[in-house]
Write a structure and sequence with these properties.
With about 200 residues, this protein is an alpha/beta fold. The protein has 4 helices and 8 strands; from the N terminus they run E-E-E-H-E-H-E-E-E-H-E-H. The strands form 2 sheets. The protein has a 4-stranded mixed beta sheet, with helices on one face. It has a 4-stranded mixed beta sheet with strand order 5-6-8-7, with helices on one face.
Length: about 200
């Protein structure tokens, strides 16, 4: 199997992002987005997904975090699409029910080539510096650019930080299942012969 790595950059008038992804190595994980909350979430995602991820990003966060968070999803999604390649020999599907204290999230995904996001996560009104609504924007951009079908549902939760951790860790775990090489899977995991 060929190396499952990708290096993707994105530079606009609003953001500058560099992503290096290695699906076959647990380390390094080095995240610097200039948004401490996203640094924390992406670190959790990579650690629980058991893949190497280096991200360097900056943007017009003096306005708000929207452009940078959305563009992080775009860039990481493109890197994931490139690193999985033809998807030959992988499981393709993954799902995980992840508890984080009182929060419980369910994440299911299919590396189908058909972009779709179903997102049913509600956060409580917050005075925190981070806009939790941007998490949906991140996963929408990631799903579209990774060309995956992605379902994320919050089963219960009270604390916004715990809810977010549950979602990002659950996504990492579900992705780890989907990208895992399956010795019983011969060729492309589809009866069509192509994804």
């Amino acid at each position: 199997m060929k190396s499952r790595k990708a290096a993707v950059g994105r530079k606009t008038r609003e953001t500058a992002i560099s992503v290096e992804l290695n699906l076959d190595a647990v380390k390094p994980v080095r995240i610097d987005t200039t948004i401490p909350f996203m640094d924390h979430m992406l670190t959790l995602m990579a650690a629980h997904g058991a893949f190497g991820l280096k991200v360097t990003a900056s943007g017009d966060t003096h306005i708000d975090d929207h452009h940078l968070v959305e563009d992080l999803g775009i860039t990481i999604g493109r890197a994931l699409c490139e690193a999985t390649g033809s998807k030959k020999g992988i499981n393709r599907y993954g799902n995980f029910l992840l508890p984080m204290d009182e929060a419980l999230s369910y994440v299911a995904l299919d590396l189908s080539g058909r972009p779709f996001l179903e997102y049913d996560v509600s956060f409580k009104p917050s005075k925190s510096g981070f806009d939790f609504d941007l998490i949906q924007e991140f996963f929408y951009a990631l799903a579209v650019n990774a060309r995956m079908t992605l379902h994320i549902a919050l089963k219960r939760g009270r604390n916004n930080h715990h809810i977010a951790e549950s979602v990002f860790k659950g996504f990492g775990r579900a992705l780890a299942q989907a990208i895992a090489v399956n010795s019983r899977q011969i060729g492309i995991p589809s009866t069509k012969g192509k994804l």
